[in-house]
Amino acid sequence: MTSQWPHPHRKAYKSRIGGNAQPSVVMLSGHHRDRGSTTLELAIFAPALIVALLLAIAAGRIATTHAAVEAAARDAARQASIARDPATARGNATASARAALARQGLTCPAHVHVDTFQFARPVGQPGTVTAEVTCTIRLGDVAASGVPPTTITARFSSPIDPFRGRQP
């Protein structure tokens, strides 16, 4: 059996005395030059990965809040459309929107605007009521990533029953 030493991809020191001596234990394989590079790579990429993770969390929370605000606007418009007068419509819409946001676990201060001008139309003529819900979410727990507070607004219209009695 012939020895295939030195390996073709490794360089070895040869003895000065006899040119055919076995190589010593010290080899120049490149492992010593790379020592510490993994730590350096981690130190460079870890902050970027953390920021990317925080931005993903913020984007997810914004998307979830957007869906909740849209649902709140839809509920508010429906509640307003079954009221008989504008004051009751505004009260029902505001209560419904806040309850919808609370069901979703949102604690943002909801601003609800209800457009009830079509309540003045006479019975028999179609009309709509529009609810607009605005919610500002603060992303304080992911603020390290530089995400500012975000305001989300949704608008929904619901038809008023043309044959139901109403007061202007």
TrEMBL record:
Pfam families xrefs: TadE
Span of domain TadE-like: 36-78
InterPro entries from the UniProt entry:
TadE-like_dom (IPR012495)
Q: Which UniProt keywords apply?
A: Membrane, Transmembrane, Transmembrane helix
Protein name per the record: TadE/TadG family type IV pilus assembly protein
**What parts of the sequence cross the membrane?**
42-64
